Amino acid sequence: MTAQRGKDLLLKLGDGDVSETFSVIGGLRTKTLSLNAQTVDVTHSQSAGGWRELLAGAGVKQASISGAGVFLNDAAAEEARAVFFASEARNWQIVVPGFGTIEGPFLIANLDYAGEHDREASMALALESAGALAFMAEG
Length: 139
Fold this sequence. Notes:
By secondary structure, the protein is mainly beta.
């Protein structure tokens, strides 16, 4: 993957319809995607050379996304707020340029609002995966 512009990483929220449409949630200035997999240690007294052994495919996978910026419009702000207060797992798309798109259900774990007296109001949110995710490679 060659160098890409950070601003091209997009976070989109699905509308929940059968024929789902995804919309960019806001003008996010910072975005982080973290993919994790727990390991299951099966090391025992007979492990070759005393090296740790891990059981492939046995751990729990999890994705976290966080971002901060500004809402682009009232509808996006209202939708994020409604999804948060309903504790609703909704489909999201995370578009990573030069890599692909990750799509699946996420819960909003944090929704923060901030503002300084001489600047625009800002928001930050954190998402946690809430089910199986799909990956579609770019290209």
